Amino acid sequence: MTKAYDKSFVEGAKQPSRRHVKLYQVDMASGLSMFFCDADTDVSAITPRSGGQYQLFRAFGHDRQEIKMNATLQIDVLDIGFPAAEVPFNGRLVDLRVLALGGIFDRASMYVYKWDNENPAVMAQLHSQWIVQQATSTRSDVSFRCENYLTLATRQTPRTTFQAECNNRFGSPWCGFDLTTVTDVVTCVAPTDVGTVYFSSARATGWFDGGLLVPTSGLAIGLRLTIQLSVKTSGIMQCILVRPLPWAPSVGVDTFQVVPGCDKRMSTCLGKFNNLYGPGGTAAAPTGGFRGFPDIPKPVDTLGWIMFLAGGAMLWPLVAKLVG
To answer: Is 320 helix (H, G, I), strand (E, B) or coil?
Structure first.
């Protein structure tokens, strides 16, 4: 028998098709933040991180594609696919794929909120918190592979790797070296393409090899780019980047912070940064210094000794027999 419901019950049970909307806040390592949502229009919402103020989340609504989320059963890995769209970045619209290829999302924090479209004044609820491990771009979207913070905290990693190179990250508390003492603030002084930057410098050739170039003005602000090679000619330093800038820098306008590189060798720690025993190179320093094992033979040398000893072990019975 079919049950008859009154009209008021039916009307009250109806809900909009997109009542619950997911909001995405991406905090980059540079300090910049971006805000997205999977609604058809922009959303103004209060979140637990907005300090009681409304925050505008931009929609990917021009092509009516929804953001796709896939999580593993253990909920420790999350794949998010954003449609290839133009998003606001530094006051202008930029293709999301360009930002992903530029490395701006590397090691970014991803906060996912659930927001009620029928009750916009109610604070959005925190759904989950992730860290971006990889951002890949295709013709149609940008995919983010994210890992849960709890998974990262419980992952067991060796504290010390026995190798000739230093185990510390350059400039970390375990390294102890103060990067501000060698960070230069420079200005682009010559026209160039997106893969090279020219600036005046008193440093020597090779000083910035393996270092970082951080734009502090212009359209590329917030990016962190690795320097492949640095060559000085007549007082002008030429830095060739591993990955290109989104736009060519403007001469006399765009500024950068340039950090030298460390190849983690003992000779570099001593000769280039005087940090063998910590800040200032003194053994009395409380923390920091070189933490490698330079006397460990290289893998090739080790393999050679193993082959030599193995060959000797096989020849020794024959030599003993001949001598005896």
So the answer is: helix
DSSP 226-247: EEEEEEEETTEEEEEESS--SS
Asked if pLDDT for residue 238 goes beyond 90, the answer is yes
* CATH number at 14-154: 2.30.110
pLDDT tens-digit map of 70-106: 655 456 778 888 877 777 777 777 888 888 877 788 8
Q: Where in the chain is the domain with CATH 2.30.110?
A: 14-154
Per-residue pLDDT band at 284 (split at 50, 70, 90) = low
Instruction: Dig out the tokens for 81 from the structure.
Output: 């696919």
Q: Is 179-265 CATH 3.40.50.300?
A: no
Residues 101-134 have pLDDT tens digits of: 777 888 888 899 999 988 888 999 998 888 888 8
Intra-chain end-to-end CA distance of the chain, in Å: 106
> Cβ atoms within 10 A of the Cβ of 73, count?
6
Per DSSP, what are the bridge partners of residue 184?
A: 258
